[in-house]
Amino acid sequence: MSAERGNRATTAAASSVHPNDEMEGSDDEGCWFEPQERAPRVLVCFTGSVASVKAHEVVQSFINRAFDVRVIVTDVAKRFVDVEELRRRIRASYDEIEAEVGGGNYADRFQDHPADRADEPFVYTDDTEWRAWREIGDLVTHIQLRKWADILLVAPLSANTLAKMANGLCDNLLTCVWRAWDFHPEKAVFVAPAMNTAMWNSPFTGKHLAVLSEFPNVHVIDPVEKTLACGDTGIGAMASPKTILRAVCAFPRRAWWILQRRVVS
Predict the structure, then answer these.
(1) Which amino acids are annotated catalytic?
(2) Count of Cβ atoms closer than 10 Å to residue 192 Cβ
(3) 32-249: CATH homologous superfamily?
(4) What are phi and psi of 220, to 5 degrees?
(5) Is residue 247 within 8 Å of residue 217, measured between CB atoms?
């Protein structure tokens, strides 16, 4: 661990998740859930970091472990995420699950979200919210998502979105969900920062992460050291999708959050 990382980590040690060899274990280990009751709900958010190119891998890791997944893609993240392709892949994955477990069991575990649109399923953008609201009395997407989700996961968390979250700004769908978030003991927030090493080592980053760590059940999944997209080598790369999945699975707040080898059937 570098001195810079060590200094940053101490500002939020109680809520930080440090990637390690155990988290990078076998694909056969991880979260598996009993088939009764509804699936745990995770709202996965992608921001303007190049690590958003891993969007499908992150989302698929949760679907494979029987989570009910919805996604927010910020406007800047669209530079790295093909929204329509991501929707297509999510739909195909859930179609496979439905075929495996049967329509009735599927409907019991994976419930339609009230804000889902037939033409824009699973993935939400800023445009989605404005298209969904026409007049007073219509559903407000960020409030519906806030009510629906058990877990809010921001992976990657860009430096810009980190600054917004720490200061309570709410100028897009993701930050509106965060501003309205219910810090109930059975809900949690996970953030996986991803940025250039110089940005990670900035005093602003430590201050902003310290602010987030003051909120209940907010967990920081620390970045790792590697060669970054810009060519620099250092800490700042997003933790692996496997590490992120395992961090979320280690938050046992409900009876159906168990660690055992079981798929949805």
Answers:
(1) 142, 230
(2) 26
(3) Flavin prenyltransferase-like (3.40.50.1950)
(4) -100, 125
(5) no
Q: What is the pLDDT of residue 24?
A: 45
Domain limits, the chain: 32-249
Asked if residue 109 has pLDDT above 80, the reply is no
What is the average pLDDT across 177-188? 94
Question: Rounded distance, CA 191 to CA 229, Å?
Answer: 20
Going 115 to 119 to 125 to 129, the CA torsion angle's sign is negative
DSSP H helices, the chain, are: 3-10, 55-64, 83-101, 103-109, 126-132, 141-148, 159-167, 173-179, 197-200, 203-213, 241-249
What is the maximum alpha-carbon separation in the chain?
54
pTM exceeding 0.70: yes
d(CA 227, CA 236): 9
Q: In terms of residues, how long is the chain? A: 265
pLDDT beyond 60 at 168: yes
- Residues 173-202 have a mean pLDDT of 96
Angle at the Cα of 228 from the Cα atoms of 222 and 225, rounded to 5 degrees: 40
Residue 29's pLDDT is: 46
